[in-house]
Target: Bifunctional arginine demethylase and lysyl-hydroxylase jmjd6-like
Amino acid sequence: MSRPKKKLSRTQAKAKPVENHATIKDITSSEHPHPSFSMQQMPAWIFVTLTSFGIAIAMVVLVIKMEIISNEHFWRSQEESFQFGCSDGQFIGQESPENSEQALKSDSICSAHEKQFESAELEGKVNIEQSPCRHPSKQSCQKVDKRQKLSLQEFREIYDGKWPVIITDVMSSWPALNWTIDFFKKKYGRSRVTMTTFANSVKSGFSVPLEVFLNHLHVSTETVWTYLQDELFLLQHPELKADIFGSIYTEQDLFQLFPAAVRPWDCMLLWGTAHSRSSLHIDPYNWTGTNAVISGLKRWKLLPPGQDKLLSIHPGANCGFPLECVKYNSALDLFDSAQLEAKPDLRYLEVDQGPGEMLFIPSGWFHQAYNVVPTLAVSGQVMNTNNYEVVLTEIFKGGSVQRSALPDSYEKMAPADVVRMLASHIPQHVLDEGERRTANALKQLYMPMP
Model:
């Protein structure tokens, strides 16, 4: 018997604050050995197997460290440059200070988007069924719809800017679905890519030849993993970008009205080992995010708006872009069971996304992705009629453009006209900085290898 359809109420979307914050613990630490185990009890074949695996992991870490050392000067000089355009994968390693409550109230994403979320007419239109989450307390959450043959009108009325949705037939004709590891090794193995490594509870960013990353794609654990996150790779290889088609759902993108110097890069290559993950975050400018899985399996946790106080957000952080915005990143890892147990009031949706499926993430939703197996994907973003006011609010918060640049009655103008007017008021020094950073990134990261 099917369960009755329910609407996520305002009280469900807001949870009470929880004060305790769990920390990540390295389960491989030798400080807590198993009390009943000794090496003498281990069969020889098990010892050899574990030793071989340990050597393989050690070699991966050694390669990573060598690449970090060889690129140390580069990363120091580019510390700010590579924040430009980042979406998936930014993180903050600090928790909110005790006096951050007022800052969270004033900068809460809830204030920018909650009204639109609450007014969404979901009941009777969306197939939302109660189902058990993988939460330790067995709380219930609601599913993300998987739809096909979805009309543009229904997408805009029900999902766009309101509720996450996975569309299963939008990628069916993409040549990118035929991409393979061997293809990338042969054609682009010596091209450098940006990536993140996680080891000993520390994240580090650096660049390596793509073949180095791919040679270790299947070597990872819960505590040692790598994640390729490169926003320029596909843009520098237009023959690859041509394998990725647009859709009716992303056709309207008002970011295209921005000057090229500050226009967000719209095609990010994501390739993660098993266990790799993004941070828990809202995308820059609070845009509508898209994520298309080409191979592998992603697991998502998505949080309805209004739960900022539970998420250990670092107050006052900025994106670091030339066209500045507020940065909404959480130190919380929802795929760490200890940290999740410490947040029993947290409400979230969970969904698995497979090859050929595209996820749309509305403005205002914190989200985190986890790669269950080695996973290749492409992410992007749009600003459209349903979210442009939210995006403009985030730009005003960043301070590069003042609210006074627009007339008081701008809400009566067509969205495209409003965005054009804002773009015309972007200061020249911001545009110059955007051009400088892009040119510097391309010069240093994508210079030909000897």
Remarks:
- The longest helix spans residues 44-70.
- Residues 1-42, 60-141 have pLDDT under 50 and may be disordered.
- The chain has one domain: 57-445.
